[in-house]
Give the backbone structure.
Amino acid sequence: MGEPHIVVDRATVKRRRGKTETLILNEISFTVEKGEFICLIGASGCGKTTLLNAIAGFEKLTSGRVEIDGRPVVKPRIEYLTIFQEYGLLPWLSALKNVEFGLKKKGVSKKEREARARKCLKDVGLEGFEERFPAQLSGGQQQRAAIARAFAVNPEILLMDEPFGALDPITRMKLQDDALALAKSEKKTILFVTHDIEEAIYLADRIFVLEPNPGRIKGIVKTSKAGAIDRTSDDFINARNRVFEILGLKTTQSDPIEYYI
Amino acid sequence: MRFVLALKRPLISFAIVVAIWQLVATFGGFNPALFPSPLRVAAAFRELATTGLLGSSSDATLWTHLLSSARRFIVGYSVSSAAAILCGLALGLLPRVFGYVDPIVQLIRPVAPIAWTPFLVLTLGIGDLPAIAIIFIAGFFPTLLATVAAVRNMPPVYDKVARNFGLNGWEKLTQIVFPAVFPQIATSLRQALGTCWIFLVSGEMVGASSGLGFLVMDAKNCIRADALLATVILIGLIGFALDLLVRSGERLAIKKWGGDLKSNERG
């Protein structure tokens, strides 16, 4: 392993509301390697979105630092794109124009822009939907378009904030597969916030389990990723048990349930 | 075809109103000089359109007056809308500054625009300017406040998208903020159009020596109820046409720029 790609060092965020000061993130430290898929998991209010926003440059740290490739993060950059739960598509632009949006800012010529946008939409399975407006797409299709828009500008890091949180379970699993395939084929580093434990195990190389009040990392679970993980395999169950243990949701005594047959 | 269909119901309603009016005029026993029949009003309309009001101080025809009013209306409405949107966008993005501006707006806004007329006539004289200034006051504040509210209620995710893709201030304003808030502004622009037309006529009744508002006063001074009603009806019809025009314009804009087709389709 070379230089760590992302360094988070004693990241602390305090928020003042009137006279009370709440500690949202308390001295969180970790590093992420290039190409890793990290899931941040935890109950609501544990600061996982704040942490993601701090890495994205949306949120200022009270103390500590975030560095990407040795450079401190001071503001959002097109190299580290966030994908939002509410998609963040621009409703007055067609799917195609939405995907072209980021390319336009990068100064790509009009012709190339369109070609690339069409390819990216095709990659996420939205061929034939180029001229539709976001309101004419389903939730899953909108999130696919948002992912296409992110991949179009070829960012190094994707920060995904509960991207599939608003989707139905079947669409969700399909998008998980596609996100995983894209992440591997494009070799992106991904930080993915979720509160779905199974989603985290299915997607992540490592799972950071966060705990609230104040937000901190309580434990890290490494999943064995020899190829795609089967949702019913022993590895999957083991990883799930580990997460449950860290979250304190698992009783450590022997099985208290008795069976009467 | 669609336009003709849209006019079917209004035309039937108007015909019924005119018929009742004719019946009241024929059988009501009113003095025809004070309560003229539709036919008399139509004759007065012809007189206004061809020779101008007989016995008036001005020999301008209805069309000359209409043109003066239209000119003032277009200038006043467009200047006031443009100023309101620009100020609204700026103040919406600078909430701290708005904190200082808002009290002033709330102080001026409850004053009926027409209350400014005497002051405006004193400072600006008789002519185009008082009427234009009144339209400006009438149209400015509602659009300003609607724009500020729309900018402040803009979903925060748009702002994040703009920052994430590295847009500068101007790009953010033109490519994100303006299109995001436009549907809400459009509603207030349409309302302002009606309001401005109302206040144009009021403004001209005092501050001008031409225009449809002036013609109303002129007809009153000549004790010509028929000419008065002819002018009033024309004012109403133009207001009606303006609203139709804006509605179809809005529909076109929505077709072109998409967005949420269902929630934007009104009336």
Summary: Residues 79 and 136 of chain B are 7 Å apart (CA to CA). The interface with chain A takes residues 155, 157-158, 160-161, 163-167, 171, 175-176, 179-180, 182, 257-262 of chain B (CB under 8 Å). The mean pLDDT of chain B is 89.
